[in-house]
Amino acid sequence: MKSTFTCQEYGDSAVLIxxxxxDYEMRWLAAQSLGDALRxxxxxxxxxLVASFxxxxxxFNALVxxxxxxxxxxxxxxxxxxxxxxxxxxxxxxxxxxxxxxxxNQVAEICGLSPAEVIEIHSSxxxxxxxxxxxxxxxxxxxxxxxVSVPRLQTPVTRMEPGSVAVSGLQCVIxxxxxxxxxxxxxxxxxxxxxxxxxxxxxxxxxDRIRFTPIKDSDWESWNQLFHQVKI
Amino acid sequence: MITASISIERVxxxxxxxxxxxxxxxxxxxxxxxxxxxxxxxANILVGNHEAAAVIEVISSEVVFTTDSELLLSVTxxxxxxxxxxxxxxxxxxxxxAAGSRVVIPGSVFGQRTYVGLNGELQGNRILGSVAxxxxxxxxxxxxxxxxxxxxxxxxSETFGNEYPVFRFSAAHETYSKNFNLTATxxxxxxxLKNGEQIFSQEFEVLPQSxxxxxxxxxxxxxxxxxxxxxxxxxxxxxxEVAPSGELIILLRGRLxxxxxxxxxxxxxxxxxxxxxxxxxxxxxxSLIEMNKAQLELQxxxxxxxxxxNRVENAFRSRGxxxxxxx
Lengths: 232, 327
Fold this sequence. Notes:
Number of helices of chain A: 4
Radius of gyration of chain A: 19 Å
Strand order of the largest sheet of chain A: 5-12-9-10-7-6-13
Order of helices and strands of chain B: EHEEEEEEEEEHEEEEEEEEHEH
Oligomer: heterodimer
Largest interface: A-B, 43 and 44 residues
Radius of gyration of chain B: 21 Å
Structural class of chain B: alpha+beta
Strand content of chain B: 25-35%
Structural class of chain A: alpha+beta
């Protein structure tokens, strides 16, 4: 089924495209396809672009193009047929709980589960990378469902350790860089997920699948390697 | 090309800065770069550099340095005056400074960002093509008292002679006070809020917990209710968000590329530069303007910049200073 969409002005140099379709996967796929088609098109005045769950944010150089010209380009691209993605699969080790996942007991309590059951749900199915966000190459994922939508922390943490695996709502994210954050941290991966020296800087992209594997903290050192090696 | 340098005698907070990293949202990398982009571009243009070259950004403090060799220098942004060996000079001009001079740029009374342009290429490591500090990448080059900062430049008296001209470009610039009157266009979520338009008739105060990611303003009294639940999506620099507490947050150049609070307005490009000059305690009003007005405003500013650029270029060429021009 073809998606419809709305276009909104988003300041003097950007637009927000909102995809409308009854099917969640279709909304996401349409947003991602539009993102792929228009990203890096500085030749037509596009400066930057973020395709997320069901929206596409496009910023442009207002001296070169305009809201109307960008809306027209979007319209043309959204008429094309969508091509399903072939995902890459990754297996990612995580030390759950204790100092690695300080909020796991809280999450368990909210869900009415034991910490072991939280780990079981989190690591038994694939998470889908929906898009890459901030800070620094953070994979924004959804997939396995906890019994309730996990609320954000009452007081955000001032420093998330790199590798922190955190949940909120029905989503999961990995913080690749030290940053403040409001999500509940249930574990941490020893794998370095973003490498400035590597090309590409990270091997995963929207649509890829990540499966988390519980490991012991004594195995932390042996996993101190790049993400490229955890592709399966 | 020679290696010139300045020796930093005293400095508060100053960094090597440029226009930031654009087009990297796909990696979740924030733009960052000079808070006041037009002032940073002008600092470069006045000394003949490409406008995206590295400059020094001085924030809420003074900087004092001595020149180890002669330099072609400009100061733009908040500072109104600088002193070369105790003699006052206007900012927003092109200055020839002799070797061994002591340059004092006092902290500004109003506004908070001052830019220093030096002809040539400032030393500095780059990450993803930019010298701009990024706290998430744990990257940045801060100036420290007692350190030297090098610049590769073509400016030397052997080539240009000792009879330096006096330039008068008087580049157009803002004058700051404690009151910032900003302009914005409507944000995509304004209709989700009851009385969202009231932000255009309120006066706000900049809260001290503001930083390069976002400026926090005191409460609007707006009740978000269910309007607060928005799935994360891309957000522009200058987005005016309503936080669950009812406080306004203006996203600045260090903003995360996605966010989920309702966006009730987006500052014009010009006002994004302006607001970067506001300090904690300053007063802010936001006026709603039509989109075509916002775009006219943007074109006017660009034409002023082009005008300055043309005048600098003509003046340099008429002196036989082509080698100093990077544009």
